[in-house]
Amino acid sequence: MAQDPTQVDALQVEPAATGTRLIDRDPSDDSLRFFDPFTLTGSKLKDIAGIQTLAGVLIVAKSGLGATYTTITSALNAVPLTASDTNPWAILVTSGVYQENLLIQKNGVLLIPLGLVILQSATESTPNVNPADTITIQEGGGTVPEWVTLRNFTVTNAHDGYSCVRVIGSAGSDVGKVGIDLIDNDLVANGVGGHPIKADSMNILNVQGGTWGSSSSTSLAVIEEVAVFKTNGVREITGLQLDYDTTEALPSTLGSEYEIQGSNSIGKVSTLAPPVSSTLSGDGSLRIANCGSVGEVRLFGDRTFEGLGTDFGDLQIQNTVAATLVGSRRGTVLGTGTLAEPVTRGSLTFAGTSQESATFDVEHPDTNYVVVPELNAGPAGDAWPTINPKSTTGFTVDFRNSGGAPIVQTMTVNYAVIREV
Questions:
Q1: What CATH class is the domain 54-340?
Q2: Could you tell me which residues are beta bridge partners of residue 350?
Q3: Parallel, antiparallel or unpaired: strands 338-340 and 57-60
């Protein structure tokens, strides 16, 4: 026979070692409320139930925690084919370690962790046994991932030559046409020659925050034939290769722009030689701006490079690359391209000669520069130095008297080559 319900103000669940567990009524809206040491402000049943059934939101939790999905893969499979950047689906992942090879082929997917979430490859515990990339984003199954966002995950891959995040496009591909956004993720490529990120023949890839600094010293981020690749505030970048060639498979967005900005260091802990390289042929540009410390950089191709507000190591500027440095420092420089920078310093030694020539380590783009000589002693014979001739490869300092006769000197002439850039 049915009994009348028992009415109480609150129920206390038998306590564990610490903390209090209560079920009561929220006086603000009369909803059922739960308290325990992990939800000190209380959780309302309507909120818990509501998020489980909220359209466009899928929840993943480890087995036994009551979520609809216990793997991220199963949640990705549940995202409808109609998802898009204007009809996005969010996958909320509760804290834990998830060992899965994630394949993201749906559009409009937003992956967000609830707490600390570590994504590892399916065979992370046995490196190089059935190796695979941890996260792969590519077209398939009739859908194209034009917009995907991953935020605040730690993604690892322990296999030699494999990637934490792999983005695969093709000729004319719309992959990343709206943007693949990686925000505040820590990418750890532990395998020999592994990749924090590897992307090719896709459109827009934005990386903001996080770090790649715990990757192996042989790790290398590889970007090839990407229309737009930008990083902003990635704290530490290990090895970096940035290439674009108009004769290769290009995505639907033509042209290329690569920009690395606001990193503390790039390539400083890398054992690769060089740690930073770029080959841009036919189209594209590369800018490294406002970064703390950058290892050796080698540039190839026929496009432009800008270094702004950055401390570079040695530079190689090869082929016909046109490089510009502004507000930056560098080590040695060599190559067959051109280099424009505000000031280039050097010295010439006169040992009983009236003329000495300076040759630039890398050719200047033009002769629109000024040479300012500094003498360490007064010149002999009432002579004064003139700069003649001047070319893109160097200049000559010539001592002559007021009558135009050459006057030999024994001294060192320091000089500064000044250019407006």
A1: mainly beta
A2: 411
A3: unpaired
The secondary structure of residue 45, as a DSSP letter, is: H
The one-character DSSP state at 78 is H
- Residue ranges per domain, the chain? 10-45, 54-340, 343-418
How far is C-alpha 239 from the geometric centre of its chain's CA atoms? 11
Q: Whole-angstrom Cα distance, residue 64 to residue 49?
A: 17
The helix/strand count (H/E) of the chain reads as 2, 38
Token reading at 363:
């050719």
pLDDT digits (tens, 9 = 90+) for 289-299: 999 999 999 99
Average pLDDT on 395-414 reads: 95
Cα–Cα distance for residue pair 77/210, rounded to 1 Å: 27
Cβ atoms within 10 Å of 77's Cβ, excluding its own: 13
Distance from C-alpha of 399 to C-alpha of 386, rounded to nearest angstrom: 6
In this predicted model, which residue has the larger pLDDT, 228 or 68?
228
Distance CA 180, CA 195 (A): 17
Residue by residue, DSSP assigns 276-297 as EEEEEESS-EEEEES-SEE--E
pLDDT tens-digit series, residues 233-271: 999 999 999 999 999 999 999 999 999 999 999 998 899
Question: Closest Cα to residue 181, out of 108, 114, 99?
Answer: 108
How many angstroms separate the first and last alpha carbons of the chain?
A: 92
CB 24 within 8 A of CB 9: yes
Q: Are 136 and 102 in contact (CB under 8 A)?
A: yes
DSSP-derived secondary structure for 202-235: -SEEEEES-B-TTS-TT-EEEEES-SEEEEES-S
Distance CA 171, CA 69 (A): 35
Instruction: Spell 246-283 as b/e; 16+ CB within 10 A means b.
Output: eeeebbbbeebbbbbbbbebbbbbbebebbbbbbbbeb
Largest pairwise CA distance in the chain: 128
Q: What Cα–Cα distance (Å) separates residue 332 from each residue in 43, 339, 362?
A: 62, 12, 10
CATH class in words for 343-418? mainly beta
Rounded CA separation 181/191 (Å): 24
Q: What's the rounded Cα separation, in Å, for the pair 281 and 368?
A: 27
